[in-house]
Amino acid sequence: MQVGIKFSTAIHVILAACFFKDEKVTSEFIAGSINTNPVIVRRLLGTLKAAGLVNVVAGVGGVSLAKEPKDITLLQIFNAVNDKEKLFKIHSDSPKACPLGGKIEG
Fold first, then answer.
1. Would 64 be classed as within a structural domain?
2. Which domain holds residue 48?
3. pLDDT tens profile 8-29
């Protein structure tokens, strides 16, 4: 799965758990709203659970948020699903003498 797809799908999962908090939110339900396979959603749920963002009850127990929605940031979601990728891809051809580009690239 591409980084952008994982991230946007994870956001969808978090939003579904928040929006439908009074209903049983299952991987099948979420997969239907994303138009993807429930296995993909279950894998993503495992990652989000490991990051402490969701609670998952095995079987058809459903998904709930592990924190208050206001305490979940986009960066937390991104970091949960993208352990190798950086948030921003920085071009690497700035002149080192440039006071901006030389510092951004580190």
1. yes
2. 3-81
3. 999 999 999 999 999 999 999 9
Contact 26, 62 (CB under 8 A): yes
Q: How many domains does the chain have?
A: 1
Alpha-carbon distance of 105 to 91, in angstroms, equals 8
CB atoms within 10 A of CB 33: 15
* Chain CA centroid to CA 12, Å: 8
Distances (CA, A) of 96 to 70, 89, 91: 40, 18, 12
What is the spatial distance between Cα 30 and Cα 38, in angstroms, rounded to a whole number?
A: 8
> DSSP per residue over 9-74, as a string?
HHHHHHHHHHHTTTS---HHHHHHHHTS-HHHHHHHHHHHHHTTSEEEETTTTEEEESS-GGG--H
Is pLDDT of 88 > 70?
A: no
Please give the Cα distance from 40 to 73 (Å, whole number): 22
